[in-house]
Design goal:
- The protein is α/β, with parallel strands linked by helices.
- The chain is 40% helix and 15% strand.
- It contains nine helices and eight strands.
- The strands form two sheets. The protein has a six-stranded parallel beta sheet, with helices on both faces. A two-stranded antiparallel ribbon has the order 2-3.
- The longest helix has 14 residues.
Length: 208
């Protein structure tokens, strides 16, 4: 058994994304992104007609953003400092739901903010890749951080011995997002989250 492990999402946990995505949609596609909407299905509307943008267009638009606009993204306050502190006692892996073709760009993004850790790309639920990391690294305790409730549910299913922290770093989204039912805690700032994470490492895996 080795050091503790932090598995962190990237967008809206380490780097801001949705606010920049919204700006780009407005500039390049005349699409309005309502950050208070509960999900993409209701959030995007055509500025000219007011018509809802179909869900089938969302992934192509997201890919378009990551193709050319990753340079817009900025670091979440306190994230780099938090990872530096956590990295003194634990291993850190960034598990991000983007295609493998964006992996190099994601690494470069994070390094620009002095965040230098292993980056894994993923599609779909994060439970299985989290379990694979635990089987590989055999950590003494693991904390998973993500902004999307669906991933906390997936991790709870496939790797229940993992502490799950729900974080939504964009305040305009956080204000309309309830705590994830399958997370152990909801904390939206890294100062408070760091203390909680370090305490869980000392405590060990959650008891069933």
């Amino acid at each position: 058994m080795s050091r503790p492990l932090l598995i962190s999402d990237c967008d809206e946990v380490l780097l801001h994304m949705v606010s920049h995505f919204a700006e780009w949609l407005d500039e390049a596609h005349a699409i309005r992104f309502d950050l208070s909407a509960p999900g993409f299905a209701d959030a995007l509307t055509d500025k000219g007609t007011g018509a809802r943008v179909g869900v089938e267009r969302v992934w192509p638009l997201l890919d378009g953003f990551f193709d050319t606009e990753m340079h817009r993204q900025n670091v979440v306050p306190g994230a780099a400092e938090a990872l530096a502190r956590i990295g003194e006692v634990a291993d850190i892996v960034v598990l991000t739901n983007i295609g493998d073709e964006y992996q190099a760009g994601r690494v470069e993004q994070l390094e620009a903010f002095d965040i230098r850790h292993r980056v894994l790309c993923n599609r779909g639920g994060k439970g299985r890749p989290v379990l694979e990391l635990i089987e590989e690294l055999r950590p003494s305790a693991t904390v998973f951080v993500d902004d999307l409730p669906v991933h906390h549910e997936s991790v709870a299913k496939h790797a229940p011995d993992v502490w799950r922290l729900h974080m939504v770093a964009e305040p305009r989204v956080a204000a309309h997002t309830p705590p994830a039912p399958h997370a152990h805690v909801r904390i939206d700032d890294w100062d408070s989250a760091t203390d909680w994470i370090l305490a869980r490492f000392v405590q060990g895996p959650p008891q069933a």
